[in-house]
C-alpha cells in the first residue's frame, strides 16, 4: 500500500498564501505523476494542478498564475504553493499519486485531504 498525508492547510485572508505538502510513502516502485485536487461544499472534485516525475505541469485555468506545483522525486513529495488566494479557493484539497507499486501494479492513491479556508 501507499500512503499520502497532506499538510499545510488552514485559514488565510484573501490575498494571502499557503503551501501544501504531500509526501508519499510505502510500497512505491516509481511515480508517474502527482497532483492536487479540491472539492468545495456541494461541488464535484476538480483537478487543480498535476506534475509528472519529469516536471511537466498542467493547471486549472482558475489557478494559473497564482498556484505553483512542484515535486521532489527523491522524497516522493508534491507541493502546492498558493498565492493571491481568493474565497472561491476554499475547499478540501487532496493529493494523489499515480504509481507503480513494488508489486508492479499501476495504481492511483489518494490522501485524506486538508481544509483550506480563505476568508476575512
Which key terms come to mind for this protein?
120 residues; seven-stranded mixed sheet
Notes on the structure:
- The chain has 120 residues and is mainly beta.
- The chain has strands at residues 2-4, 10-12, 18-26, 28-39, 46-52, 57-59, 67-72, 77-82, 91-101, 106-110, 114-118.
- The strands form two sheets. Strands 2, 4, 5, 6, 9, 10 and 11 form a seven-stranded mixed sheet that branches. A four-stranded antiparallel sheet has the order 1-3-8-7, with no helix packed on it.
- A hairpin with a 4-residue loop joins strand 9 (91-101) and strand 10 (106-110).
- The mean pLDDT is 96.
Task: Give a nutshell description of this structure.
The protein is mostly beta strands. 0% of the residues lie in helices and 58% in strands.
Low-confidence parts: none
Largest sheet: 7 strands, mixed
Morphology call? elongated
Output the number of helix runs. Answer: 0
Oligomer: single chain
Total E-strand runs: 11
Radius of gyration: 14 Å
Helix content: under 10%
Kindly name the structural category.
mainly beta
Mean pLDDT: 96
- State the end-to-end CA separation: 40 Å
Strand content: over 45%
Taken in chain order, the helices and strands follow as EEEEEEEEEEE
Amino acid at each position: 500500500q501507499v500512503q499520502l498525508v497532506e499538510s499545510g492547510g488552514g485559514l488565510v485572508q484573501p490575498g494571502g498564501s499557503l503551501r501544501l505538502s504531500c509526501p508519499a510513502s510505502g510500497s512505491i516502485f516509481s511515480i508517474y505523476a502527482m497532483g492536487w485536487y479540491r472539492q468545495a461544499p456541494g461541488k464535484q472534485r476538480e483537478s487543480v494542478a498535476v506534475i509528472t516525475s519529469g516536471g511537466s505541469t498542467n493547471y486549472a485555468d482558475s489557478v494559473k498564475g497564482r498556484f505553483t506545483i512542484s515535486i521532489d522525486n527523491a522524497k516522493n513529495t508534491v507541493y502546492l504553493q498558493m498565492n493571491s488566494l481568493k474565497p472561491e479557493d476554499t475547499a478540501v484539497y487532496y493529493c494523489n499519486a499515480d504509481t507503480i507499486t513494488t508489486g508492479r501494479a499501476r495504481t492511483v492513491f489518494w490522501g485524506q485531504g486538508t481544509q483550506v479556508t480563505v476568508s476575512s
